[in-house]
Amino acid sequence: MDAQRVFDALGVLVVVLDRQGRITDMNAAAQRLASVPREALVGQPFAAAFLWGGADDAAHRLGEALAAAGDGMSRTLTLRADDHWLDLTVAPLPSDEGAQPGLVVTGVDAGRRVRAEKEARDREDRLRTAKEEAERANRSKANFLAAASHDLRQPAQSLTLFGALLADRLRGHAQMPLVHSLNQAVEALRALLDALLDVARLDAGIVVPDPAPFPLADLLERLRGDYGPRAYGKGLRLHIRPTGAWVHTDAALLERVMRNLLDNALKYTGAGGVLVGCRPRGGVLRIDVVDSGVGVPTDRLEDIFEEFVQLGNAERDRARGLGLGLAVVKRLSRLLGLPVTVRSSPGRGTRFSVEVPMHIASQPAPAGRTWSELDGDCGLALLIDDETLILESLRMVLEQWGWDVLAAPSGEEALRLLEGAERLPDVIIADYRLRHGRTGVEAIRDVHALLGTPIPAVVLTGDTNPDRIREARCSGFAVLHKPVTLSELSTQLTTVRTRPMVAAD
Known about the structure:
Elements: H1 2-9, E1 13-17, E2 23-26, H2 28-34, H3 38-41, H4 46-50, H5 56-70, E3 75-81, E4 84-93, E5 102-109, H6 111-169, H7 176-204, E6 212-215, H8 216-233, E7 237-240, E8 246-249, H9 251-267, E9 273-281, E10 284-291, H10 325-336, E11 340-345, E12 349-357, E13 380-384, H11 388-400, E14 404-408, H12 411-419, E15 427-431, H13 440-451, E16 457-461, H14 466-474, E17 478-481, H15 486-498
Parallel strand pairs: 7-9, 13-14, 13-15, 15-16, 16-17
Antiparallel strand pairs: 1-2, 1-5, 3-4, 4-5, 6-8, 9-10, 10-12, 11-12
Helix pairs in contact: 6-7, 6-11, 7-10, 7-14, 8-9, 9-10, 12-13
InterPro entries: CheY-like_superfamily (IPR011006), HATPase_C_sf (IPR036890), HATPase_dom (IPR003594), His_kinase_dom (IPR005467), HisK_dim/P_dom (IPR003661), HisK_dim/P_sf (IPR036097), PAS (IPR000014), PAS-like_dom_sf (IPR035965)
Enzyme class: transferase
EC number: 2.7.13.3
């Protein structure tokens, strides 16, 4: 009797079976689960008593487990009968000598565990679906921006070149202020498109850091010279504290980070000023950009690093940019491994901090790159672009610089022009995206094949699609991104003529 009470007090299901799987005894927990008196269950197969309501697969798996236990091997399994789940262990039951051995089934209600696992799987499925949807949305956004940016860069390129030509020809004219205003508007458009291109370049993975030690003072002095007049024009103070510290990172990319932070500070500061200062901490130099501007709510500090997010600019004032500067900072921070943090008090100002590894041993600053100007000894340029306005504006610019020009709207037309030419071109300038699925890289290679010599070449592209950017870069030719300024074009022409670039195989 005492043994039966212990048997019934167990909180788990216990059922004793004979070798044929028929019930010989059970405890109270098993009887409660079966909802049938003990006497009515004795002699019944376990499956019939506990796997009610069908469940053919469960019955089959239970039969396999019972057979294995009859051969002396324990088995564990989870079975479902209707809406009920059981975690079962089927094992051989030790017996007295001479007695027929039997089986014992122990189990617990697995409903709570199974439901929890199902809820976890459902959550994972929802998260995976949400992630896939977000990735699809990002791809769609990137493709849209690439297409829109390319189409905008085409007329922007023509405006840039025509505006520069007009300013040169009307120098001293009474209408020169109007031309100046026109060129300022074009420059603002160019700045917005360049911000889009920065994001695309970083997403394309073609920006490779070139870390080296350098004195931070040189960079800060350039920032003072460029941003001091802008701050003064807004009635703000710009104070950049001097430092003798050296840091070790990519100087050009760190400068881009600092310029974007200063641009942001000046745009959102209406009174007071902006401070740039440095604090050494161990082997790291913390560079702070502190403003007295509008500030950022605590719950939006992460949002400001996303593309096109501009707090307090619901009217989309273009004077405050496009909302890409801090998105570029975020990407450059990851690329360079330089942590960027932000602290802000709404209505009082914001502090952005960049942590840069210090370089203790002072070394001479690396020599800056210099580019020679076009010396007037120009040659023959072959232009290939299917946009009539761009083709015409490039032709006019080059002719004004003293070049002879062959202008073709396609690679095929360029080959026809060369067949009747009296001399070889000295340089090829081709748009990357031509009609009928052709590219400028293919057109340049066709010209090389026709002439049997690798003419120096420059590829112009208005694409911001990461894949297209990589393709253009991998061509081996010099690449300029539209809209191209006269200075950039002049510099690149000098460079490719003195150091010819041959397409990679």
